[in-house]
Request: fold
Amino acid sequence: MSLDDAMKWLDDRPDISSVRAAVVDLNGVWRGKRLPVAQAQKILSEGVRMPLSITTSDIWGTDTADNPLVFDTGDADGFARSTGRGLIPMDWLERPTAMVPLWMWQEDGAPSAVDPRQVLARVLERYKAAGLTAVTAMELEFYLIDPAEARPIPPRSPVTGRRLEGSEVLSIDEIDAFESFFADVYDACERHDIAVDAAIAENGAGQFEVNLMHCPDPMKTADDATFFKRFVKGIARKHGFAASFMAKPYADLAGSGLHVHFSVLDGDGINIFDNGGDEGTPAMLHAVRGLMDAMPESGLIFAPHLNSYRRMAPGAHAPTGICWGYENRTVAIRIPGGPTKARRIEHRVAGADANPYLILAAILGAALEGIEAGKAPVDPVVGNAYSIEMPQLPTDWGQAISLFEQGATNAAIYPDLMRQVYILAKRQERAGFAARMTDFEIATYLEAV
Reply:
């Protein structure tokens, strides 16, 4: 959206009196300012000053201890500048407003090393230098829940009034019951050039999946996924629900994932994974090897929170072993069937709670490392991957933090400063949870010992 188009759109919306100028932090949380609508033109054209540390807060919005961007630099400002996406209306609020999506730059004009959008841009520059273009798509799962309860419970059906229960995978009746909600979500996506494909009812009560279409611009894919999550959460509230992209909101129901599909085109627009057959090209196999090699150290990107690891359980529709296969949904890296010209890789590890920018940086970065290294993967898994002994993804948050810190591939993908502050934030979050005494802990030990 050009500046003129954005201002014309605002002129046609006299009900909007304020805007939100916001960036996405490393946890995927929007952070920024509420400003009068009169400031919109300046924000879009010049940007707004914000602390460079704003993208490095922990999940509670707290400064990370020992973060060199805070006290060591006087918590210096950088510039948050428009991503070029213009204004994103938020019509679900009591008073309609609009958000200006921004990303962070240093005072001297250099990209901020700790802005997740800049982290992905760094990887995409490597693809451009190699004469390659990644085509990406995302599948996002989420739960609709009853907002009136402290703990998550399924919502009541808008049609019957009865609370949802049990698995209704691919149920047309369940999708139909929430048609008004989905119609608003799809309308919002259409207004903002987010190409949305199928929506389905998933395995949990009130769980759904929506697919975003393939796009030859991975930055737009990550932008679209981030906006989509915000649309779903806001529109759900408008309809009397809450929406959660938490990886595992229910202990006894399926977790929510974020699957990534991608192929790679050469300078002539040819899919370098397509050899005309089902097996794919050596380049595809090299990409698979790169993804597998990087998977242990990338675990913290795909499962960034304490709750993320509740999803990583065998037989729970989330991969746990580091493996790949053709048309196999029990593996971490799946090669879907279909027309060979669309030969692609599906990466099935990330939870819905992960940051879309960092997910794509991790996947595309590792794939390129594999393509450049030119090594073949182990044999593909046939059958149930959960029943086969193999190297495992990290299933413990502390282990994932350590592996991320030690990872050699990570050093090639992410800026040093980003890795440093991300580790600090995750260790601080882990300590925060460890310091809390749960009701279950008290009930277990109070009189038993």
In short: The first strand starts at residue 18 and ends at 24. The radius of gyration is 22 Å. The mean pLDDT is 94. Residues 302 and 350 are 4 Å apart (CA to CA).
